[in-house]
């Protein structure tokens, strides 16, 4: 769950990169990856919330208006299903983090030789 605010922070860093570097295909690709990464982060957050609610349905028992949701959360297959969803979402988030980071590194370091000269 701590990844969500960190994703927002790194997205801000990516936007600063976009402003600091001249527009190129690599910068545009990184910006697109960053936008998709934000979306994946939100999906991960939703998956985690569903997983917590399925594992601890008593959290919702305080609100009588959510009684129907409480009964739905009591189904025996929901905890394993949300666990699988949570793991899949986490793995996809890690993958997208690597892809987005790689595209950012490529956009920063493209055109720079091994000795640091452009």
Structure description:
With 118 residues, this protein is mostly helical. It has one domain. The protein contains four helices and no strands. Mean pLDDT is 78; it is low at 112-117.
Q: Mean pLDDT, rounded to whole units?
A: 78
Strand content: under 5%
| Major β-sheet profile | none
The total strand number stands at 0
Number of helices: 4
| Gap between N and C termini | 39 Å
Q: Rough shape?
A: elongated
Low-confidence stretches: 112-117
Spell the H/E element sequence. HHHH
Number of domains: 1
Short description:
With 118 residues, the protein is mostly helical.
What brief labels describe this structure?
118 residues; mainly alpha
What topology does this entry show?
Elements: H1 3-20, H2 25-55, H3 67-73, H4 78-109
Helix pairs in contact: 1-2, 2-4
